[in-house]
């Protein structure tokens, strides 16, 4: 089914985007904690 495969591709796209956003927020948190502890 074409609609099913397009949904799957869209899901992968969202998943990658969320992972990148999560990684960015985590890196920002680590930087803030590092600055606070200094």
From TrEMBL:
It comes from the Bacteria. This is Uncharacterized protein. It comes from Vibrio sp. 1F_97.
């Amino acid at each position: 089914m074409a609609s099913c495969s397009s949904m799957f591709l869209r899901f992968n796209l969202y998943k990658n985007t969320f992972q990148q956003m999560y990684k960015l927020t985590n890196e920002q948190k680590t930087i803030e904690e590092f600055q606070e502890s200094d």
